[in-house]
Amino acid sequence: MTRRFRGLALLTGLAAAALALSACAGPSSDSPAPTATGTPDPNATLTVGLVLEPTNLDIRRTSGAALEQILVGNVYEGLVTRTQDNKVTERLAEKYDVSADGLTYTFTLHDGVTFHSGAPLTSADVVSSLQAVKDDATLQGHAELAGIASIAAPDAKSVVITLTAPNQNFLFSLTGVAGLVYASGDTTDLKDAENGTGPFTLKNWSKGSSITFARNDAYWGEKKAGVAEVVFDYIPDFTAGVNAALDGSLDVLTAVDPNLAPQLEKSGQFALTTGRTTDKGTLAFNNAKAPLDDKRVREALRLAIDHDALVEAVGAGSTQYGPIPELDPGYEDLSSVAPYDPEKAKQLLKEAGHEKLELTLTIPSFYGTTVPQVLVSDFQKVGVTLKVNSVEFAAWLDDVYKNHDYDLSFVLHVESRDFGNFANPDYYFGYNNPEVQKLYAQALAELDEKKSATLLAQAARIVSEDHAADWLYNGATITALVPGVSGFPKDSINSRIDLLDVTVAK
Question: Which N-terminal residues, if any, form the signal peptide (predicted)?
Answer without folding.
Answer: 1-25
